[in-house]
Amino acid sequence: MSFLSATLDRVKPSPTIAVSTLAAELKAAGRDVIGLGAGEPDFDTPDHIKAAAKAAIDAGKTKYTAPDGMPELKQAICDKFKRENGLVYTPAQVSVGTGGKQILYNALMATLNPGDEVIIPAPYWVSYPDMVLLAGGEPVVVECPIETGFRMTPEQLEAAITPKTKWLIFNSPSNPTGAGYTREQLKALTDVLMRHPHVWVMTDDMYEHLAYGDFEFCTPTEVEPGLYDRTLTCNGVSKAYAMTGWRIGYAAGPVELIAAMRKIQSQSTSNPCSVSQWAAVEALNGTQDFIAENNKMFVRRRDLVVEMLNAAIGIDCPVPDGAFYVYPSIKGCIGKTTAGGVKIDTDEAFAKALLEEKGVAVVFGSAFGLSPNFRVSYATSDDALKEACTRIQDFCASLV
Ligand SMILES: Cc1ncc(COP(=O)(O)O)c(C=O)c1O
Questions:
Q1: What pLDDT digit, counting tens, does each position of 293-305 carry?
Q2: What positions does the domain Aminotransferase class I/classII large occupy (predicted)?
Q3: How far apart are the CA of 338 and the centre of ligand 1, in A?
Q4: Does 121 sit in the ligand 1 pocket, CB within 6 Å?
Q5: Number of structural domains found in the chain
Q6: Angle at the Cα of 130 (from 315 to 160), degrees rounded to 5?
Q7: Over the stretch 119-163, which tens digit does the pLDDT of each residue have?
Q8: Could you say which of 285, 316, 340 is where a domain stops?
Q9: Confidence class of residue 50 from pLDDT cuts 50, 70 and 90?
Q10: Is the pLDDT of residue 19 over 80?
Q11: Does residue 41 have its Cβ closer than 6 Å to ligand 1?
Q12: What is the CATH number of the domain that holds 141?
């Protein structure tokens, strides 16, 4: 009998972290590798946020805090929800964790019993199914193909709901596709949910601020206030504020759920880093102007990547609404063979050969539950993106 928990047999390590690690190892070994795998902005945390953290250290704000966040941060989060989403929450309805990841994990651990189902539209952020499995639940994956813009239709949602459904995990704009739901598209889904009062909504709004062009972000309870009592609205400072390493995520929802999440956190990691919490207070309360500036750069990069990938033979790359990812289809490459003699029968084979033969690291689509595709993170320099897309074009042109 293995010494390790049987639960571990149900999950796999994060494939996105695996790709970034492999790319870093190849680079360290002297290979010319361009990494398009990382899910984080390439720019630094803004200075005023760093200054708030330094001031917190100098003022000795370096002790334990309340397990699920200090009052000043909880208030800043309530103010953010009111100001940006028109949602009224009290501090008792707010939970702060060590990254958005811990918040989602706490919520699943706090609510899932064996056999409970969680609906996850695919392509999905890699951690959702494995977190559900770790918490003892059953992921119910609903494939949302490129033809419907990678969005779940109300019919698909209706068909996926059973008496065992506990949660729908909703993510717009999405990692890995960048697809966002308009207010009308979201209303069509919330109408279905209103007919099934036992289903709760875990909305992962991590990419809220990274929304481009005409696309306007909206969150389920904003669109359907009737869902307020069974929605956990999750968010964080990692992406829009370039604070991935600070590890602060948060959520707001019903008091009973928040208390259950606090219980788990108090017996696992205790509080999120006190200094990071002070940085997050400044991120939420301070100027938001730099976000629009950064978004101009993201739009330029998105357009560059979409255009160059669509010029590659066999690739079809839709234009995303937000986040910093594109999720092109490689249907036109399947069945071909690379110059190095590798048969491209899956997107995993495509990504592996692209890394080995051209030194470009992308994450294969099967990691996100929808194939044959790959994900490019365009949160890197224009020069690196141009070079990487040129190599992808060459790679596709060389397939026979
Ligand atoms: C959709 C989505 N949700 C949550 C997270 C987790 O964010 P954090 O770094 O705050 O844990 C990520 C990070 O990649 C993400 O892409």
A1: 999 999 999 999 9
A2: 32-392
A3: 34
A4: no
A5: 2
A6: 75
A7: 999 999 999 999 999 999 999 999 999 999 999 999 999 999 999
A8: 285
A9: very high
A10: no
A11: no
A12: 3.40.640.10
Same domain membership, residue 19 and residue 70: no
Q: Are residues 83 and 226 located together in one domain of the fold? A: yes
Spatial neighbors of 258 by CB under 8 A, at least 6 apart, are: 68, 92, 93, 94, 95, 251, 252
Mean pLDDT value across residues 34-60: 95
Same domain, 157 and 186: yes
Q: Is residue 54 part of a domain?
A: no
Q: Is residue 194 part of a domain?
A: yes
Do residues 140 and 219 both lie within one domain? yes
Q: Within 10 Å of residue 153's Cβ, how many Cβ atoms?
A: 16
Q: Do 314 and 222 sit in the same domain of this protein?
A: no
68 Cα–ligand 1 center, Å: 18
Judgement on whether residues 211 and 266 belong to the same structural domain of the protein: yes
**Residues 126, 234 within the same domain:** yes
Cα 239 to Cα 108: distance, rounded to the nearest angstrom: 22
Confidence of residue 282 (pLDDT cuts 50, 70, 90): very high
Is the same domain home to 270 and 323? no
Q: Is the CB of 39 inside a 6 Å radius of any atom of ligand 1? A: yes
Task: Judge whether residue 1 has pLDDT over 70.
Answer: no
Answer whether 172 contacts ligand 1 (Cβ < 6 A). no
Domain that holds residue 207: 63-285
Closest CA to 239 of 153, 304, 160, 178: 178
C-alpha neighbours within 13 Å on the C-beta side of residue 46: 20
Determine the 3-state secondary structure of 34 from DSSP.
strand
In a domain, 53, yes or no: no
Residue 227 CA to ligand 1 centre (angstroms) = 23
What spacing in Å lies between the alpha carbon of 399 and ligand 1's midpoint? 35
Q: Is residue 178 part of a domain?
A: yes
Please identify, by atom number, the ligand 1 atom nearest to the C-alpha of residue 207: 1
Identify the H or E element spanning 65: none
Pocket test for ligand 1, best of 169, 171, 175 (most atoms within 8 A of CB): 175
**3-class DSSP state of 103:** helix
- pLDDT tens for each residue of 155-169: 999 999 999 999 999
Which of 17, 181, 208, 238 is the pocket-test mutation for ligand 1 (most atoms within 8 Å of CB)?
Answer: 238
Q: Which atom of ligand 1 is nearest to the CA of 16?
A: 14
97 lines ligand 1 (CB under 6 A): no
| Cis amide leading into 372 (omega within 30) | yes
Choose one of 285, 308, 332: the last residue of a domain: 285
Task: Grade residue 39 by pLDDT with cuts at 50, 70 and 90.
Answer: confident
Residue 98 CA, closest ligand 1 atom number? 11
Whether the per-residue pLDDT at 6 is higher than 90: the answer is: no
